[in-house]
Amino acid sequence: MYKKIVLIGYMGSGKTVVGMQLAKKLRIKFSDLDEYISCKEKMDIPTIFEKKGEIYFRKKEKKYLKELLETDVTEVISLGGGTPCYGDNMKLILQNENTVSIYLSAQPDTLTERLYPDKNKRPLICFLNSREDLLDFIKKHLFERNYYYLQAQHTVATDLKTIEETVSEIYNYLKNK
Known about the structure:
- With about 180 residues, the protein is an alpha/beta fold.
- The protein is built from 8 helices and 5 strands; from the N terminus they run E-H-E-H-H-H-E-H-E-H-H-E-H.
């Protein structure tokens, strides 16, 4: 069994909700990197972006990712969508012993449908006014980020799957490793 199961993927791919359910099924701890950052910084992510800027956020994100990876706790860690794409974060994940990285992938149309209703809560997309603008943004972003996401050791497509089906697929993958 791995010490760390790291879920990566674009926002809206299900990392947090799948991560919580997977941790429950495996009877291990769950950590959401964004929540961890918010707790340590005593500010939510949109406020950090607004008051301190993205560069500050990305520096803290790396620091706290490293902290979580270095603990001796067995856990599922869900990352922010951009985490693997900045600095050497993906390298940190891949080189960490007893860690497996799993990319939760979803098509741009799926992500648009999942993200549009709550887009105002997400600093990177809150300024987009229509579904079409959001879809175009996601397509461009995914193109840029796929280089990092595809370095994960395993990929699970989440389109047209329930949370339970996605969790079961990851669970079966881990069981057979």
